[in-house]
Specification:
The protein is an alpha/beta fold. The chain contains nine helices and eleven strands. 38% of the residues lie in helices and 18% in strands. The strands form two sheets. The protein has a nine-stranded mixed sheet with strand order 4-3-5-2-1-6-10-11-9, sandwiched between helices. A two-stranded antiparallel sheet has the order 7-8. The relative contact order is 0.17.
């Protein structure tokens, strides 16, 4: 039986750049943006406060460029710019659905985004505006997974929702490469760290563990995955400390 009320009041949604590609090999699939925006509008209408961190892997991956000889810091700063592109595209899609949205960037680009200011972000959320955090943490060598965990903790989100592309949870191996990979319905942050699972980086898992922030990993391409997770339905994999629901 589907839940009729949201389980969470304030959430942070991590959208990987790859998830925004949909079935494309590069860039942004407009149908994915529309579907995400429509789901977010549905939960905003239920008085849920939504913050979003976007990745940039659909345009640029810093680690990939480093492997080809590019300076890592330069590659990472370039990746931050890719997240800004995704943030602006998502902002436009949300506003097309009538959702008031603010983009805040960890790297200063005043012509197109507010600077990241924690108290201002929280005030936007209280006014039922969606806040999109772009630019990662603003520092090289830090992934957007870490940015998502950090921002979720800073703004007081009750859960971190991690939307993946064609991967419906946490597995003990890459399910796109290994059809025998085993899916976890639930595990602890410590388990995820000890098993060296690659769904998020170690720093992000550690932040969530230390601050008792639960994580739900699910497939963005699944049916109403964002809304179902926020309403407390079982989707994907729950990563939480022992004893937490």
């Amino acid at each position: 039986m589907a839940a009729t009320k949201p389980k969470y009041k304030r959430v942070l949604l991590k959208l990987s750049g790859e998830a925004l590609m949909g079935k494309k090999n590069f860039g942004i699939d407009p149908t994915v943006l529309t579907r995400v925006a429509q789901q977010i509008k549905q939960v905003i209408d239920q008085n849920v406060e939504v913050a979003i961190v976007v990745g940039g892997g659909n345009f640029w991956r810093g680690t990939g460029r480093e492997a080809k000889g590019m300076d890592r810091a330069t590659a990472d700063y370039s990746g931050m710019l890719a997240t800004v592109i995704n943030a602006l595209a998502l902002q436009d899609s949300l506003e097309s659905e009538g959702v008031t949205t603010r983009t805040q960037s960890a790297i200063t680009i005043p012509a197109i985004a507010e600077p990241y200011i924690r108290r201002r972000a929280i005030r936007h959320l209280e006014k039922k505006r969606v806040v999109i955090f772009a630019g990662g943490t603003g520092n090289p060598y830090m992934t957007t997974d870490t940015a998502a965990a950090l921002r979720a903790i800073e703004v007081g989100a009750e859960v971190l929702l991690v939307a993946k592309n064609r991967v419906d949870g946490v597995y003990d191996a890459d399910p796109l490469k290994n059809p025998q990979a085993k899916k976890f319905d639930r595990l602890t942050h410590r388990d995820a760290l000890n098993l060296h699972l690659q769904v998020m980086d170690i720093t992000a898992f550690s932040l969530c563990h230390e601050n008792k922030l639960p994580i739900i990993v699910f497939d963005l391409q699944g049916q109403q995955g964002i809304k179902r997770a926020i309403f407390g339905e079982h989707v994907g994999t729950l990563v939480a400390n022992e004893g937490e629901e």
